[in-house]
Amino acid sequence: MNQKQIVAFFAGSQDIQDEAVREKTKTEVEAFLEANKDQISKIIYGGWVYGVMWIILEASKKVGITIEGYSIERYRKYDEGKGVDITFFADDYERLKEFTKNADVFVALPGWLGTIKEILGVKDHILEGNTQKQIFVSSLFQAFYAMIQELTQSQMIYGKDAEVLNSVWSLETIRI
Is the pTM value of this prediction over 0.85? Predict the structure, then answer.
């Protein structure tokens, strides 16, 4: 039997304005967690209880998967006391290093520039640690997904970067 995996989600803390994308994100996250609940020991995420992060939090509760937030000290006043166990770090570098150390699989859902920064930060930590971990960028994160696709096709993302960054049309294609 395979060892259970820790899955890290990166997503926006703001709500998705496009209702169709919001509903598709909710449906895919719920289906992904339901299909993989026996293979996932825990979820780690940014810790907020808003926007896409709320979708992840609610879906994990629904299937009974433990969830833990990783945030930074400057957000403590927003994150603390929201019913989620959150570990606070001095800065993003340390927080992303801890994500990389503790998670086995990384999934990027719709977000904004901060989400892209987090994904690229984790990618760098993965490469520094010389591990086989992978990041899956969902097509639901439309602009970033398209950029990864284009840069990979034009061979501007190659080598080790291409081994770590994967664009996936659906969360169903990710095997835990």
Answer: yes
